[in-house]
Amino acid sequence: MPLKRVPYRSLRTLLRRELIREEDAGTAALIRRLAHVRRAGRFTRAEFLAMCRWKSPRARRHYERNTAALIRRASTAALAARDERRRIERLTALRGVSVATASAILTLIDPRRYGVLDIRCWQLLFSIRSVAANPRGRAFTSPQWEQYLTRLRGHARALGVSARMIEYTLFHCHRKLQRGRLYD
């Protein structure tokens, strides 16, 4: 695992000492641009592409293979879903959209309730024993997404911040503790 020794025994301690409370300016602008999506109950192809590029521009050619009609149907179904697993399944039905990318889409639409499921965040959680599986933090499953979301929301509630701020803090802590390359 490409992390230095983590100086925290628990996620709670880490968050109490490292919590970030302000969003990155560029991300905040994108979140504002997407503020209408929850009310509309769907997003456009242009919005979809912007969200996917924000998470991972490498898969751009896959994202672009989705038609406007397909994106409209998938986004409408995802945002109308009553549980997180169905929401993720609807989004991952789109070309190029992994569980991690779907989590980024939901985060940009509703940062209060969601955070991005990211390799950095998961590896940090694994190192402090807050999650037990998938030490490399890759190829996430729906159950792992639900477990992650439960952790984020619980700590967000306790600290009076958004789930996104919990995730953003984890991301930055990992960057400070990383040694070597992220991907081997």
Features:
184 residues; 0% strand
Structure overview:
This protein is 60% helix and 0% strand. It has eleven helices and no strands. The chain has helices at 11-18, 25-33, 37-40, 45-55, 60-63, 68-80, 84-92, 99-109, 119-127, 142-159, 163-177. Helix 9 crosses helix 11 (163-177). It is globular, with a radius of gyration of 16 Å.
**Distance N to C terminus:** 9 Å
Low-confidence stretches: none
What's the total count of β strands? 0
Structural class computed from helices and strand pairing: mainly alpha
Taken as a percent bin, the fraction of beta residues is: under 5%
Number of helices: 11
Average pLDDT number:
94
Q: Determine Rg (CA atoms, Å).
A: 16 Å
Q: Describe the sheet with the most strands.
A: none
Fraction of helical residues:
55-70%
What string, H for helix and E for strand, traces the elements in order?
A: HHHHHHHHHHH
Shape: globular
